[in-house]
Amino acid sequence: MISYFQLTQKKKKNKMAGLYNRAVVALLSILATGHAFSPVPPVSSYNHRSTTTIRRPSTAKDEAAEGGGGASMVAYATVDARTGKTTGTSHLSPDAIERASVGNPIEKIKLAKDGTSAFVDVYEYAARLRRGEMTWEEVESSDMNSRLKYAGMLHREKRTPGRFMMRLRVPNGVVCSDHMRFYADCVEKYGEGDGVVDITTRQNVQLRGIGIEDAPDIIDGLHARNQTSFQSALDNVRNVVGSPLAGIDDMEMVDTRELCNAVNDLVSLDPITRTRGNPTWGNLPRKFNVAISGSRDDYAHTHINDVGLVPTPHAVTGEMGFNVVLGGYMSIKRVAESVPSNMWISANRESVVSLTEAILRIFRDEGGRGDRQKARLMWLVERYGVEEFKNAVVREVESYDRGVTIQDAQPGPIEPFVRRELLGVHKQKQVGKSRVGILVPAGRLSATECRQIADLADEYSAGEIRLTVEQNIILPNVDDDKVAALLKEDAVSMDKRLKVNPGFIEGNLVSCTGAQFCGLALIETKSQAEAVAKKLEKLVTVDRPIRIHWTGCPNSCGQVQAADIGIMGGPARKLDKETGKMMAVPGCKIFVGGRIGEDAHLSLEPLKSGIPLDDDSLIPELVTILKNQFGAVDKKLCASVTSSRSL
Q1: pTM, full prediction
Q2: Active-site residue 450, yes or no?
Q3: Of 167, 257, 296, 361, which one is the catalytic site residue?
Q4: How far is the C-alpha of 200 from the C-alpha of 451, rounded, in Å?
């Protein structure tokens, strides 16, 4: 069957028939993958009752309506009349519904108006906005700030009122040149400041500056390219992370691409309608992260995911499989490293999907729906105990009767291993091919840079682009005899933001969104992170990559606890020379010593706190840490030593 990338290349070669070929590409790419967005069947196809009734404790509102106390009977729709699809609530156990009905405010919003049909509201709101029948301020508040997240739309109320960040689903981080040009087209109209594209720490893409009135065209365009934004935010399974070197790595243990796509389809493809958005998993207690690692490098960061699959051969049979780790996450109240589950599964599609489905089912129906800070999977695992949770998962998988078995965890490798770098030029397992990793500072891309990447991909990597959790990109399958030409391209020259061979500090930068767009952030991160990295490169020399992560608040979306050096926004005070008083200023905490890879470790306590963010305060602190902890030397001293040696 002809591939999506081959179709894209045919389109390029026939510029005169551009519009026609674009339509053909979109249609055939959908049909070729089996993920077509076909019309929904009639409601009767579901074999669901139209409502489900449960008894729950009455509220004051109930008593006023019914004229009495005690328990009240509450009916919840099981099928959404507008979509013909089941509701997320209809898949919950009665106990879960009962707990949600008296749970936190988000749970009550989800019960009152099911989130899995939020995309319909997006289309309806957009139509009314375009006709001038309403303004964005008149959109229902619970929709604007909560429910529309089910369509991947996150309102940035505090920073850019009326504008949204749209989060996509990009399993295993694989995109193509057509995608990149489409992203550029989506954001360009909003201007260089607001209309940008971000690569995330989940190998994902976020489009910024989006207005509701434009969202339907973007959603339709994504679906035509076999992508979606549905169920990418709030209480859903987030983007499924895999190895960015899948299929091209000579040290690969598992090709994660098929497995990531299979899990993505499990959670976001309706098995009945074959349309995007799966109500079965449309009402989880909290977000849920899955990472599937393909090698000992653990490029997927399994230690900070709810479910992490670590490639491990069976000690007796040699069959390749996964040890399973559970419960890793970062939040404002708790940062937890995943724990071994004593489970091993075969590295095949059926086993991976069945295990994920089993854990999700238990989490969906038994996870906490009260305190949202105690609703992640780790809390449920701890409530069970690891061994009992394993037993529950085994029973659940056995009930599916798919021939999947879960065995005890297998011993991991003991030979020394050094995690390999993703930036720069590296040989692939395919003879005559190389992968080329390119820095995207802080993961931020302009529309122009998106198109530049698309052009490079078309010219050198058959249109294919890989995203990494370090917020950078990889062009795979570059002909060895074309690498030199790629390195000479103006888009990746040393005076540009995009670089193939950046310095050890600027090349390992990770940053959350920051205060430019995020209302939770205490500081601006992306622009400051990029500027500070450049200054450090001019001041010191290091002999290995140093990972500096920035995050605007304790939620740690920038994963500072996993970094060599992590900078978290926080309070600080500094002497005001005019008044002689200590004044509150933007500041940070500094974490040191996090690790990734096989010996992953989270640094949970800051080395420094209350450091002002101005260069005069922060830069000296970072230089001292780089020297004391990582062997950095002054740039001038290094140049002097090199000069004397040459004599």
Answers
A1: 0.90
A2: no
A3: 167
A4: 18
